[in-house]
Write a structure and sequence with these properties.
The complex is a heterodimer of chains A (about 110) and B (about 170).
Chain A lengths: L11 H10 L4 E2 H12 L3 E3 L4 H10 L3 E7 L5 E7 L1 H27 L1
Antiparallel strand pairs in A: 1-4, 3-4
Chain B lengths: L1 H37 L5 H12 L2 H14 L2 H23 L3 H26 L13 E3 L17 H8 L1
The chains are: A alpha+beta (about 110), B mainly alpha (about 170).
Amino acid sequence: MANSRTDLMQGTLELLILKTLSREAMHGYGIAQLIHQAVDDVLKVEDGSLYPALYRMEERGWISSDWGLSENNRRAKFYKLTRAGRKQLNSESANWERVSRAVSRILQTA
Amino acid sequence: MKVNVLLKRRIRKRGDGAEREIEEEIRFHLEMLAQAYSQQKMSTDEAHDAARRRFGDVERVKNECLAIASRRSPFLVALKVFLIVMFASGLALRFFKMDSNVHHLGDVLMAVPTLSGLLLYVRSLDSSRFPSTSQGWPLRLNETIGPVFAAYDEGMRTPVERLISDK
């Protein structure tokens, strides 16, 4: 069973992916690397878990994919943000800010 | 009959294509990881093992991706559009044609897509076909460096619990 204390809010992984892709189109490995660097090992992200998230996000129209050549000339699938994805990123970021402000406020008063 | 066979073959071919794409994507990821670990002076075997550990369960990831990819197959999309058109035609016949025979045809045209839609919905709920989330939510706090975000006190109480008990 999942550890409820350390499991993060549903949608967090999607938000991290959307933010990562807001810079440029990237393949799954690149996204995983950037997320690992950004979260500085505070969060544990199993690399494989990115892919179902990417497929779900593509199904929802937030990202699109194309096969291309990677930096070492290997065939790789690149994901990029769509207009709907950018909109989703803005709304999710605002939501995250709201929730974290609310939680901080509770922590300060406790 | 022939059309049915051709259709099945086409769906299977598409499924194979999706599976190949997912496998290629995963293989690329694992090889890049192994390459990165090799640069940290690991042996080839160690690097591959470390890459697999960091990636997680390859089969589970592949099955989850395949399940999602199958939901957006053009065949399913076309089927849904066909059922919607059929339902709309039934609705139109039911309410705009007064002849009782045509009425019944309208009922049938509405019933078939309704039942098919229900079947498709129930089938999409059947997640037991795919061994997913056996390891829980994929994104977790790293416990080895302490509960950075966990707002619990020494007695493992949440802030709300603390508020209530301190009153």
